[in-house]
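Please fill in the sequence for the structure shown.

STRUCTURE ENCODING:
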């Protein structure tokens, strides 16, 4: 019987996501990741409210589908193929793009290292 993606797989993916936010936003990475996760949860909540009692009918098979996946790679492929996996609208966190935040964090680290 195939095993579903394990908790360690999901914990590892959370660390990967945390690394992205940390690299992209420096010291504010954790709060920006929290903001993103809140937006994601709110987006799904709004979808549920809009669908009313049709929400369960539309999403009934998702749990079974995910539990039938054999590993983290299959979970990634599954999530990438779902059009509703991310918030429908995202707001910019604090006005800085990841590139600008990364450059700012890099220059801050470089200055700190000099002295």
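FILLED IN BY: designer on duty
SEQUENCE:
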């Amino acid at each position: 019987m195939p095993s579903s993606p394990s908790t360690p797989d999901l914990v590892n993916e959370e660390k990967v996501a945390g690394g992205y936010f940390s690299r992209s936003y420096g010291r504010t990475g954790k709060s920006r990741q929290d903001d993103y996760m809140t937006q994601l949860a709110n987006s799904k909540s709004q979808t549920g409210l809009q669908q009313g009692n049709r929400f369960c009918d539309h999403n009934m098979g998702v749990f079974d589908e995910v539990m039938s996946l054999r590993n983290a790679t299959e979970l990634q492929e599954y999530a990438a193929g779902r059009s509703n996996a991310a918030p429908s609208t995202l707001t910019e966190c604090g006005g800085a793009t990841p590139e600008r935040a990364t450059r700012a964090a890099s220059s801050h680290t470089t200055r700190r290292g000099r002295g």
